[in-house]
Amino acid sequence: MKKLLCGIGLLLCCGGTLSAQPEVIADPNIPIEERIQNAIERMTPEEKVRLCFGGDKFGEVVLPGVPRLGILPMYAADGPRGIRAGAVTVFPSGLGLAATWNPALVEETGRVIGSESRANGISMVFGPAFNINRDPLGGRFFEYLTEDPFLSGKLAAAQVRGIQSEGVSACIKHFAANGRDLNRNWYMSNVDERTLREIYLRGFEIAVEEGDPWGCMTAANGLNGDLCSDSRWLLNDVLKGEWGFKGLVLTDFCHSRSTEKAALAGLDIDMPWGDFETIKFGKPLMDAVARGDVPQSVLDEMVRRILWVKWKTGMLDHKDMKAGAALNTPENQQVARRAAAESMVLLKNDGGLLPLDIDKTKKVVLIGPNCAQRFCVLGLGGSSGAQAVYETTPLKGLEAKLAGKADLAYLPLTGDSEFQPIPNECWVGKDGRNGVTAVYRKQGSGDVQQERIEPVVDFTWFNASPVPGKIEPGYVHATVEGKLKAPVTGNYTLRLITDDHAELWVSDMGAQAVRNAEAGVPQRNTAMFFFEAGKTYDVRIDYSQSPDGRKNATEMNYWAKDNPSLRLEWAMPSDADIIAGQIAPYREQLADADAIVFVGGTDHNLDCEGRDRTSMQFPQGQTELIRQVSAINGKTIVVLMHGAPIDLPWIDRVPAVLDMFFPGMEGGTAMADILFGDADPSGRLTFSWPERLEDSPVYELATQDVDNVNYEDSLMVGYRYFDTKRVTPRYEFGYGLSYTTFDYSKMKVKKDGDNCVVTLHVKNTGSRDGAEVVQIYVGQKNCRYTRPVHELKAFDKVFLKPGESREVTFTLDKDAFSYWNPDRRAWVRDSDEFTIEAGHSSRDIRRSAKVRF
């Protein structure tokens, strides 16, 4: 009898399982529309709604599934420059990647990101991010691509194609008119429709048309009175209606701020995780559908789009997404190296100092704060910060390049004053007393063992404990908080020294300022800040020990020397006398060098999601160091690392400047290749670099406050302003030098129906291999509406051997001559004369021709 009952129970169990099998949903032989409709009909109201928010597990970035129907959850991660999951291949940040002007290469980076996403179990990449770089002080200027919608759209579409070629969904962001981080979840962008259509939506339109992304993330800000995630005009009318976008729309990680309004506007998913009972697209959405405030058809359409994306990524077919995925392969790393090399822009090269001749260069001196600094660290810069499997810094790159060929001296000259622990009188604790509040826990336990005021952040805990008897040595977890009061105004550098994992957070930054990522390893990392005298800044440090990691003899020697377990130091603003004193011991070594390479600029605390910069000021100490060193040795080369336009007060003191932005994990190798001529600097600027902040149109023409960004600059963005109004920038859009020269000739223009075919010959007239970015601009003669003097409408990167010539062809369609007519509310091409220009940059026009439609 027991055997019979067990058999019946097993049969019932199996029968129950079989009755719930999604035989239609999972059958690839049935049309996908039928499979999705079958799934929708079989779902309960709660199952449908649970697909529409980021799940209820804190910290898990997921688009939930329906287990009963065999619909799998879909995991997602940030990834514009490398997937944010484990140690991966990391590419240049958006501004640098765009400087390649090479859609094929950008598509290849997307393929690598897609493949490495699959290897990590990720089916959706939040990227590319390509809002227009309008404001030089915008916190995410470094992350976005360009100031031009045509170029942004073409490059974004390329990366989308690359990511999705691996069966991983790209999720374009941030839709739309996002460019500031102050009050970023609530401020309103106020933009007229023509400006929106031609500048701030056009790049997204191109990406949708040519990339066919499966996901779109709304901007956290508002647009013309509605939050972007609440805008029916933006989501339903334009994105899904006019452009035919087939994928899903989700919020940025600020959640939907409404239920009915967002659902009716076209939002599909509320991100990230949250409490189902209270999150806007949780039970409130289920209740709204039950009341009839949100029609059942709207919810079903949301679910339909979500399931369609899961089908595109293989989730409905239960494909093994990790099969064939390539993670951290030499081939992937080679793509990173090519991307880094092609992203670098040669800004200055007086007298042909570069490239250096490795056979004649015997002594090289390397100085500056960014020589050995790592930037490919998870979280640095915000959500785009990815953890590289390794990172070749400028120091490592030059060491490898010069090994056995020349002497390399890396000198401790950074432009900072001497580092010292931050003194007690500069800390303000919770109760107003000087000091910091330290909370001590045992590693692995959330229970507080002790909380007390400490005078400074300077502790040594090897074989010791801050709370003897309660926390064993090696198991310390400490959270240190306090308010830091700056004694003088200027650029400070904070240095976090630890013997284990720790993170430093400062004020309202959107990401950690420093991340000492290694477990059980002594490490020190720095971050730059601009502090105002008398103002206080909130500081938090999270520190944790890893007892299993403390095995290495070298590390044991570190601790035996009584080095700190946790110390926060600063270098205060420098002056000329301090810098001169630091240089003095090395003066002869600097004078004797065949070349001095200074690597500096900013870091991800001045270029970071979560806060905007306050000025374009170049760090004063670095400026003084460059001035004094270049006076000692005229062969001083400046290599910049940064993510937005900055002042260059020292530019006339040095003969050569190479801009490498934030170049990714192979940046040091690529830098060395370019400095010594093994690669041609083929990067070109994708933004107009103003002489002064006041020259930027956003500050010359437009206004803003905490709650509003008013786009009164209209179409006059970047080069459209500088070239139309004849304002001279420091460096124009499209600018960049090469080690060779190029000639343009035989330009011809021929009408072909609504299209115009442009041909011209480009010749490498120099003695080195090189790449020229041919830029095609179009201007209209007699438009009744104001138009920029010209606009980029085509481009091609041409690689040529010395003496080689090639004919390049561009087909300009009707869109290349059209503008948004505000009266007709449509794209219009007038009957008029147009000038077509072929240039090396927006201001270096080599050939032109006219055509009439």
Secondary-structure blueprint of this entry?
Blueprint: H1 2-19, H2 32-42, H3 45-50, E1 62-63, E2 74-78, E3 87-88, H4 94-98, H5 103-119, E4 124-126, H6 149-164, E5 169-175, E6 188-190, H7 193-200, H8 202-211, E7 215-218, E8 222-223, E9 226-227, H9 232-242, E10 248-250, H10 260-265, H11 283-291, H12 296-312, H13 330-343, E11 345-349, E12 363-367, E13 387-388, H14 394-402, E14 407-410, E15 420-421, E16 427-428, E17 436-442, E18 448-454, E19 458-459, E20 476-485, E21 490-498, E22 501-506, E23 514-516, E24 523-531, E25 536-544, H15 553-560, E26 566-571, H16 576-583, H17 587-592, E27 595-601, H18 620-632, E28 636-641, E29 656-659, H19 667-675, H20 697-700, E30 703-704, E31 708-710, H21 719-724, E32 742-752, E33 755-764, E34 770-780, E35 791-800, E36 805-812, E37 819-821, E38 826-828, E39 833-839, E40 845-852
Parallel strand pairs: 2-4, 3-13, 4-5, 5-7, 6-8, 6-31, 7-10, 12-14, 12-27, 27-28, 28-29
Antiparallel strand pairs: 1-2, 8-9, 11-29, 15-26, 16-20, 17-18, 17-20, 19-26, 20-25, 21-24, 21-26, 22-23, 22-25, 30-31, 32-33, 33-36, 34-35, 34-39, 37-38, 39-40
Helix pairs in contact: 2-12, 5-6, 5-13, 6-8, 13-19, 14-19, 16-18
